[in-house]
Amino acid sequence: MKLIEKYFADELTPLQKEQFTQLYPLYEEWNAKINVVSRKDFEQLYERHVLHSLAIARVCRFAAGARVLDVGCGGGFPGIPLAILFPQVRFTLADSIGKKITVVRGVSEALSLKNVTPLHGRVEKIDARFDYVVSRAVTRMKEFVGWVWNKIEPGEKGSLPAGILYLKGGDLQEELADTGKSYKLYDISDFFTEEFFETKKVVYLPR
What we know:
Distance between the termini: 34 Å
Helix content: 25-40%
CATH class: Alpha Beta
Strand content: 15-25%
Strand order of the largest sheet: 3-2-1-4-5-7-6
Order of helices and strands: HHHEHEHEEHEHEE
Structural class: alpha/beta
Number of domains: 1
CATH topology: Rossmann fold
Shape: globular
């Protein structure tokens, strides 16, 4: 939790601080039943999952009323940390694996996150429109763009025009060129100094 306060203390209400604090015991309890966070990573939950998710907020500030789809959310990353940070934004967290959505629902209810809608199903089947799509390295970019591009409504419901905000690491130039879309890469190490983020990026594809 100290990591979150290190970078976001000035913008958190007491309720948000409490919600971020509760993430560790909540995920510890759920992870004992349904393994959604790798056990070797669990001690670094705040760095490798919560803060990593919040890198998206350093790239784009979502406006009140914006609709955000988290594709392949797993146990709730990046969607749940972002939903805590942006309580006036509507988040749909989707995953094709039902037990992961069970965790998302349980954590959201425990935190009283009224702005989170858990959705069990494949993204291709979702019949709705969104302002932004977020995700964390669920597949190659070309395939991901094919899944979601037509679900993004052009416009500007935040500090960037509508589009995809994708967390991924390594050398992405060739993979991104395959999408045929314009893009911008943001080095997470420009926002957070921890060694874990040295090769991590936020990929932004405007719609």
